[in-house]
Sequence to fold (263 residues):
Amino acid sequence: MNDMRPVPRSRRSDKHAQQQTPSALRPRARYNAPRQATPAAQTEQPEKARPAKKKASGALRLVILILLLVLAFEAFRLVSARKELADLRSQRAAEEAAYEQLVARHTVNETKPWIEKYALQNGIEPAFVAAVILRESSYDPRATSNVGARGLMQLMPNTFEQVRSALGDSAATFDDMYNPETNIRYGCWYLGYLSRIFDGDPIEMACAYHAGPNNVKLWIMNYAADQQNLQLDEIPMEDTRYYAGKVYDAYAIYYQHFYPDPV
Fold:
């Protein structure tokens, strides 16, 4: 009797049969398992937040840059201000030194009492008399000009005669103009005479002392803007304009430093 039981297959033959089964007949997985996220993939998630962070850091850099520029500008301005202040102080010190030297050249010597005495007698400022003497002779009592003027105030022969006659000083001679006190006495009388003509105007008095009162009267009529007061820049003669300016400058210094009280 034939044995109808199936012949068992070996495990090897079963495996072989499985290997020979077409791939199409193999059961497919119901779903694909997700791959485990790699570190690189994990870092890709916050990409959306990066632009905001970059923008914030860029704004911060800009603020810092602006602050640094402001600080640099303020530092530069401070250094410039300090330099300007140092230059200004140096300039002022130089100007003060030059002014002190200028004041030192304005002589005040033994003639001071005579200047004050005879200026007071003739109603004029001692400072103005001192300025005329400085400009005329630099306080040299023996000074003689090339046109014959003599002494501290450089009186001309015709001016000497006019003053001697007014003072009734018949015994005086032109040689007496080398005597410091006599010269100042005569010169102050003549300045007082000019002061009465020109109402004490120092510019017009200086011009008249240098060029004569008649010339100054003509200049006032022809060149003064108001035909009453002659200004320094309205003097038509260059040498007289220069002379009057020097006398006026010296007058200011003498008044400020040596003869502050008016008569």
Summary: The mean pLDDT is 85. DSSP finds ten helices and no strands in the chain.
